[in-house]
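Problem: given the chain below (253 residues), write out its structure.
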Amino acid sequence: MAANSKPSTFESVIAAFTVVATFALGYSHWRLATRQDEQDAQIQRQAEEFQRSLLQMQREAEAARAADSFELQVFTLVSPHLAKLKESGREAATSQRIVTAAAQLLSSRGRPGLSQMVEKIREPTAPAVTPEPRTAAVEPVVAEKAPENAWLVLLATLPDGSDVGAAEAVANDKLRAAKELGMTPAVSIYKTRLKGRYVVTLGKPLDRSGALALATQARRKSLSEDAFAESDEGWELRGTAPFPTKVISASRQ
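Solution.
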């Protein structure tokens, strides 16, 4: 009986293997659980960082929209005073002070568009020279490209198939109306790149803020009820008003 109570070598090996296997299985399970917890924690951190980034982007977008809205409101308020920047007198001096204060306010907020526009308006303009009537063929205008990142103020867009003569007639009418309204005496013709249409624009190429303000002024003074600002996509400058008018001889009449 005493001999039978002792475990055999095979039983000892089996018992040792069972202990080792149980330990290895438990250790593997513990490592797997620990790794899963680490992955869960990493995913949680990434989700929190993404959420913070998203909130930051939303706050920045809201701040940019608020700044754009404020700038547009300031432009709308000062637009009636822009025409008096070159005039003299008590009323003109008051308007100039209002425009200067508004420009300084926007510049302090990183919006120099109004200041740039005021400088352009105050620049001395050369007197327009009325061209003599010509019956000979007009020399072709050399196409020029507007500067990059520029915005244009569109007064009119001619239908497809319109020739440059029709565009010149519209530009001459808009130039005459702009002078009568005391606005920027500069009207040009561009040809779009995609559809090849002729468009009539007011003033020189400006940045976005200046173009929005000038378009607002054109609508307010009824120079063009649907005037709007458009980014210059490499359009071709075809000429600046005034354009020569065609003279019809008596023999052709």
